Amino acid sequence: MQAMMAPLTPPPKGLALASKSSPWSTIWRMLGIVLLLYIIAQVMVLSLFGIVEGDSGLTIFSLVCSVPLLLIFIYARRPKLTHVIVANPSPTGTMQHVLTDSRMLMTPVPTSFSHHLIKDSPPLEMPPTSTLWIVFTLTVITAFLGLLPAMLSDEPIWLVLAILVGVPAWLFGFSLPVHAWWAFSTRHFQIMTTKIEGEKMLIAGMLSTFPALVINSLLFPLLLFSIGIYSIGPGTSGEFLILTVSAPVGEELCKAAFVLSLYKLIDSPKRGFQIGFSVGLGFALLENLQYIMGSFSGLAVTYSLTTVIRGIGSIPGHALWTGLSGVSIGWYLCTKRGIKSQNLTEQDSTSWVVFDSETGQIVNTQREMSTMARTVRGWLYKPFDKVWSLPRNPITGITLAICGHALWNGSSWIVSWLFIETDIVVQVIASLVWVAIMIATLWIIGREILAAVMHLPS
């Protein structure tokens, strides 16, 4: 019975065991979690409004409804453990070991057994970035064609078609661009990341929307009311202040706080940027869910424009700004821990073993870089002496993130306000032109930031 009765002990240092998983499994898992967290967020906000309005019934009802949802979230985030039994030659051991299910193990020499529980987490794998963007493009085109007839005719059949097309278009439209940027960053940063670590980063970003939502929808409006600003509708000064003060400050501080909550994972400035980038994507994932849902009010046109603009503009913007907070937090933590830059380039000594759970065979998870990936990587590369210096102080990093966020929101509002009295066509054209300018500027800045990240110590 010695084989099965030996106590559990810590696993050997540097051992990582993982069963093979599908690159798409992470996407489906994150899609389910973001939908769950969105429902939880709405329920929690209802409970807060109940407290503000003095409606105890609404508060209690909301809290009761949130309990099973939170339990489901905790259950979904449980770690997958693998029971590993190691047989070591030992003069005090035995050659016969009784196992479960009426089995016995015979060893040629006396052995003793050690038992370990190891988290089963393979290296984070994502589908090819190009594949995700192709599927996203096909989604937008299909949705546009499927929603267009409902704009031109009141026939019930076209409304049914719009519903059948709209549901998958919503799911893919809000999630695929986020995962495409996540897949790109995972390969670009070239840092070994486990599936558990990657999911923690993205979920931290989703969770950061909770306090940001309370700030933007409850606390800041109450502050505006207290100073005599009662209107926060379109084109008002209240809306401008929410977009340029509440959203940038509240959201970037919340995201930075959740980056810091993953301090155990931050072992270098480059890891700090990676975590900040991923937290920003997680925030954008849950935020994008609501924006794309609201875009269906205008059917084909507003859905397509909103989905594309957010996919190539707002989503990477969230990631890049929070990445600046992350890299500055990474430098700060490494400095506080007494880690010097020259010691950050040492390779991870973890020994990875990835196996197929059905056959038990060890599998190779390495994939060659595609031609497109090599082209993008070459475009992003710059020599060390020509890249920007990224912030090392968290105050500087978070301030830059807030300024970038505020400039994006505020300039869009100003353009809309300047053309508010003009024809609707002129308003749309002006807004689209300015959005195109902002996206182009963001991509130029993003290239400089990502080029600098590749020279960060890791």
Question: What features would you describe in this structure?
Answer:
The protein has 458 residues and is mainly α. Helix 7 packs across helix 9 and helix 7 runs antiparallel to helix 11. A hairpin with a 3-residue loop joins strand 2 and strand 3. It contains 12 helices and 4 strands. The radius of gyration is 26 Å and the shape is globular.
Top keywords for this entry?
458 residues; mainly alpha; two-stranded parallel sheet; single chain; two-stranded antiparallel ribbon
Summary, kept brief:
It contains twelve helices and four strands, in the order αβααββααααααβααα. It has 458 residues and is mainly alpha-helical. A hairpin with a 3-residue loop joins strand 2 and strand 3 (103-119).
Percent of residues in helical segments?
55-70%
Radius of gyration equals 26 Å
Q: What spatial form do the alpha-carbon principal axes imply?
A: globular
Question: Roughly what is the average pLDDT, rounded to an integer?
Answer: 85
What string, H for helix and E for strand, traces the elements in order? HEHHEEHHHHHHEHHH
Q: Report the β-strand fraction as a percent range.
A: 5-15%
Distance between the termini: 46 Å
Protein structure class: mainly alpha
Instruction: Give the uncertain stretches in residue-range form.
Output: 346-355, 362-366
Q: How would you sum up the major sheet?
A: 2 strands, parallel
- The total of beta strands comes to 4
Q: Count the helices. How many?
A: 12
Query: What's the arrangement of strands in the largest beta sheet?
Result: 1-4
